[in-house]
Structures are given as C-alpha cells and as structure tokens.
C-alpha cells in the first residue's frame, strides 16, 4: 500500500486565503488574505525563498483610525461534554466591570463554518455597543466528518443544544446582561433563529434572515431540492416521510413564540423561497407577537455578502434598529 501523501504548508499567514493563482513557472503565487481583524488584501508568495509579501494596503488608513474592539477565542463544553469552538467580539472601549447587551450570530449552511475571516456585520453591531458572539455547533464543517454528520436527517437536535450551550456559556459571563440578549442568523442560521423563538423565551429580540422554516413547503420551491432530501428527508420526499420533515421544521414550534422578531427575506431568493419568511411573519402576527417583514426586491439568497450596496446597508440598519428597539 502506498504511503499517505505529505502536505506542506506554504503560507505562514493565519487567515482565510482565496483567489490563489500561480504564475506560468509555478514559482510565484498571488492570493487574497483576510483575517478576523482585517479585510482582504493582495499578497504574493515567492517559492524560491518561501516568503510572502503584501502588495496592497487598501484598508491601512481606515483601520488605523478605528477602534475595532477585541476578539477572544473560546473552547467550551456542549451539554453532553463535547468540545465546541467559539469567538467573542467585544465592543470598542469594552469595560469588564459593566454589563452589555449581546447578539448571538448563527452561521448558515449548516455545512459551513465560522473561521478566521473578517465579518463586517459583527463589527458593525459591536461598534454600537453589543457583545457579539458566534460559534461552530455540530452540523458544520471543519471539525471532522462525525461533527458534520451529527445532524444528518435530524436538524434541530444536537445543533440546537450546542447553540443553547453557547448561550449558557455567555450568560454566565459577568459582563453579559441576561435580560438583553438577542439572536440572529441567515439561511440555516435563520432556521435556527426561528427554531429558538419557538422553543425558548430566553432572548429579548430576534432577527431571522432568509430562514428555512417549513421543510415540507421548502421541497419543490428550492433550487437545492435534491440536497435537502439527502440530508434531511432520509432520501425521501415529504409525501413519503411527512412527519420526519415536520419534526425538523421550526414552524412546528412557532405557536409557542413570544419573542419580538423581525423577518428579512429577498424576493429573488431561489435557495429559500420568499414564502418561508412569510409563514413566520403571518404566524407571529396571528399570535400577537411584535414582528416586521422586510422584503428586498431583486436580491438573491446571499444579500449579506453580495447584492446592491445600498440594500446591503439598509439590511444592516434593519438588524441594528430592531435590536436597538428591544435591547437598549
């Protein structure tokens, strides 16, 4: 049997590397690098001397005049003792003797992950006085196959428990005001946000974005049908496995919701159709829970990362405004 291939680390930087391109001689490589504290810049790696050099400094002047706050990396325990990874972004001029409102951010996917990359949304919220915290619950990538497949055909189980364990960890910190905790997320993060408001009242406010809310109606209205059926429905459509899809759907639990919740969705979202957000909005109105529905015309599923600049700014202001209303 052949030996396992060896892996050589070429780049010394710790961060998210993208757009890597070698020259024709395979000696130099350009790439974009960003970290949690710095947006992307262009670098070049020289294979002859093994060194990298930064070519652009697009954000240096801007970053020097800003107080970005500080990020703390954390390992914490899930309810069953499993090790989980998270980060805490503290607001500028953070004072540990004071208590702060906080916002739990939940990633999409679920088979993606938070990593060492710049997230402008988090800094925007932290700059307004919030402790922003985010983690990688089971179901995502980056920690092995067992971690990723822990929620295979059972969304809303151990992943929900992991997110709640993260909220528990943060609630135990002396600088967190437990009466002013908010939660938000997009796509699968929106799914988990809606699941949370139906299963607990611990959060004072929520913003669910482009959320997957009803897995039954999702089937047939998403461009990702086959993949959802593989990972959610035991390779069966809803009409052959109805109870299983409904058990994993946040709409099953929405009747218990009491948390003021803003619903944000894009009208050109082909991954998660507009009706997924409308179901939550209509249910909350019927329940008498304070809610607003914000629909962005012509925008895709990934408005948090692309789309028209003015609409991306409006989206951020909607998120902040909702939390300012209920957490300040």
Can you characterise this structure?
With 328 residues, the protein is α/β, with parallel strands linked by helices. The chain folds into two domains: 16-63; 67-327, Rossmann fold. The mean pLDDT is 93. Helix 9 (274-287) links the parallel strand 11 (261-266) and strand 12. 28% of the residues lie in helices and 25% in strands. It is globular and about 65 Å long. The protein has an eight-stranded mixed β-sheet, with helices on both faces. A four-stranded antiparallel β-sheet has the order 1-2-3-4, with no helix packed on it.
Keywords:
8-stranded mixed beta sheet, 328 residues, 25% strand, 2 domains, 4-stranded antiparallel beta sheet, single chain, alpha/beta, Rossmann fold, 12 strands
Summarize the helices and strands and which ones pair or pack.
Layout lengths: L15 E7 L5 E8 L2 E9 L4 E4 L5 H5 L6 E7 L5 E7 L10 E7 L13 H7 L4 E5 L9 H4 L9 H14 L4 E11 L1 H12 L5 E5 L5 H4 L6 H8 L9 H6 L13 E6 L7 H14 L3 E6 L12 H19 L1
Parallel strand pairs: 7-8, 7-9, 9-10, 10-11, 11-12
Antiparallel strand pairs: 1-2, 2-3, 3-4, 5-6, 6-8
**Terminal residue distance:** 63 Å
The rounded Rg comes to 21 Å
State the CATH architecture of the largest domain. 3-Layer(aba) Sandwich
- SSE pattern, N- to C-terminal: EEEEHEEEHEHHEHEHHHEHEH
Report the major sheet.
8 strands, mixed
Short description:
With 328 residues, the chain is an alpha/beta fold. It has helices at residues 60-64, 120-126, 145-148, 158-171, 188-199, 215-218, 225-232, 242-247, 274-287, 309-327, and strands at residues 16-22, 28-35, 38-46, 51-54, 71-77, 83-89, 100-106, 131-135, 176-186, 205-209, 261-266, 291-296.
